Amino acid sequence: MIERILQISKELDGSIFLFGARQTGKSTILRQQFPKSIYIDLLDTEVKSRLSRRPVLLYEMLHDKPENTLVIIDEIPEVPELLNEVHRLIAECHLVFILCGSSARKLKRKGKNTLGGRALPVCLYPFVSSEIADFDIDRAVNYGMLPPHYLAKNPSRQLAAYIQVYLKEEIKEESLVRNLDSFQRFLEVAALTNGEMVNNNNIAQDCGVSATTVSSYFDILEDTLIGYRIPAYRKVMKRRLVQAPRFYFFDVGVANHLLHRKDIVRGTDGYGHAFEHLVVQEIYAWLHYCHSEETISYWRTYTGVEVDVIIGDARVAIEIKSVEEVMSKHLKGLKAFGEEHPQSRRIIVSLDRFNRKIGDVECIYVKDFFQMLWESNSL
Predict the structure, then answer these.
(1) Are 340 and 367 in contact (CB under 8 A)?
(2) Less Cβ around it within 10 Å: N or C end of the chain?
(3) For helices 180-192 and 211-223, what crossing angle results, to 10°?
(4) Is 306 in contact with 298 (CB distance < 8 Å)?
């Protein structure tokens, strides 16, 4: 059994919504961490059918339970009408709920009761390095960190099925887009710009849709937790800065599949892009699991000098390189950033196993960097 970083019991100061993309392990973690809870699985056809026909049945089942009884409803977006009964049970009977689903978009789109702040949102991400014994960086770079894919004997087939199921269940069945073919094309183009600056007009031309439609498609990816946009760092000092956000799929394995990027080996451009994505993915999860109030951004000048990750208000700057020997030429972006923000901590994360300092820049091996994140919970 793999123990996850997210300990939901620490989040239970009242009820919560547990969100997370499909196959991040939401149902597994709930069953592992709360084996004695009342568990209602809306993927069970009979359960879903009966509660859909008569939502008040939930109230009748639970209203006589002791205060603070924990009730888990898995896949609550399948029967969003139950939220009115959940609201009543929280207010009248003081029960505690964990409401699980892939995203809040379905609830918001249908205008359903989202409990008016009575349940706080918590998100589960794919595996992080500290959750895996004998973590294999090359396997993670190739297949991503979704539990079924990282652990599978044939991850490529699993990834192909994942994309198909996502399109069918999250997009087509919910009628989130009018033209599924154009959205499929958008996914492929979005993959080409994964980790790059988002230009809605250019993507619109490639997809044959409007820039407004492209923007709405990115909103769908974010709302269904399939991706996220990282903003540009905007505090201008001397150099003029790019303002466009970057987009990343939530898991590098998903991006690899959409890019038809297979069997990636060290020293190639494909490995470099995937390696950067993996490190960003780990930092993104770390910030959220630690409830950090600091933002994540990237820094790029109009002349093309850049730093991959900025944490907070220039407190930490991180460059990511898949090189096995860090040299002075790899520090160009961090040096330029240091000229404008000399108080910042500057780190280059790489495959170079020799941790050291080059001037004011810390060179840290990627596995040591990940260990530092999760053991100290700080940078």
Answers:
(1) no
(2) N
(3) 80
(4) yes
